[in-house]
Design brief:
Shape: rod-shaped
Distance between the termini: 105 Å
Strand order of the largest sheet: 11-17-16-13-14
Order of helices and strands: HEEEEEEEEEEEEEEEEE
Radius of gyration: 32 Å
Length: about 220
């Protein structure tokens, strides 16, 4: 019985020691990885043009590292399993994300970076109200509502009454813009125009409508409260 207990204890000791040695040999620290760098100025890549991205990485225990690059658009040129990637931008403008995962035998680290592809399209502007042909009385307040959309966002939106700038607004994420116009123009047709300028490429889109202004008849008040 004593001999059997001794054998069991010895086997248990050897198993524990072997497990400790195995754990010591495991690479438990994650790779040390830099941020993603690029030869693209400001991480801006024109449509259908190529850019190179790279990182520097090392393993604390000197082990072998593996790489896996990915992007939510565009085209890969060559391997995606190296410490660098050559990428061709898509024809459609927008904000794209380049990601790389670096792994050793036990852990991995991910780095990502946004890349801007300037759109070749001008912003799309649509005046929602008022509609062409509507009539308004002098001194009334009229809400001019418009949407302005660009693949790279809107830098600013301008409101014009008869070619005179009456309001300029910074771009917003909602794409909706509104200006309250106090009708003080002379009676007759009046042009309302809204223009939008996109970020990065400076392209401008516009929409316009013609409304009619009616003068106030002497002795009557038609101002809306």
């Amino acid at each position: 019985m004593k001999f059997t207990n001794f054998v069991i204890l010895a086997i248990s000791f050897i198993w524990i020691v072997s497990c400790d040695v195995e754990n010591l040999l495991k690479n438990t620290d994650p790779p040390v990885v830099s941020d993603i760098l690029s030869d693209a100025s400001g991480f801006v890549v024109p449509p259908m043009q190529t850019a190179k991205f790279w990182i520097t990485a090392s393993d604390p225990e000197g082990g072998v590292l593996t790489y896996e690059w990915s992007a939510n658009g565009g085209e890969y040129i060559g391997s995606r399993q190296n410490d660098s990637l050559t990428w061709r931008a898509p024809v459609t403008g927008g904000i794209y994300r380049i990601t790389v995962k670096v792994a050793n035998s036990e852990n991995d680290v991910t780095r990502s970076r946004e890349v801007t592809v300037p759109s070749l399209n001008a912003p799309q502007v649509n005046i929602l109200s008022p509609h062409s042909g509507e009539f308004f009385v002098q001194e009334n307040s009229v809400a001019i509502k418009a949407t302005a959309i660009s693949e790279n966002g809107i830098f600013k939106t301008d409101f014009y009454i008869e070619d005179s700038l009456v309001s300029s607004m910074a771009g917003n994420s909602g794409n909706n813009y509104e200006f309250n116009w106090i009708v003080r123009e002379s009676a007759g047709p009046v042009k309302i125009e809204v223009t939008a300028t996109s970020k990065l490429n400076g392209l401008t889109g516009s929409d316009s409508v013609f409304v009619n202004v009616e003068g106030i008849i002497p002795g009557k008040t038609n101002v809306k409260r």
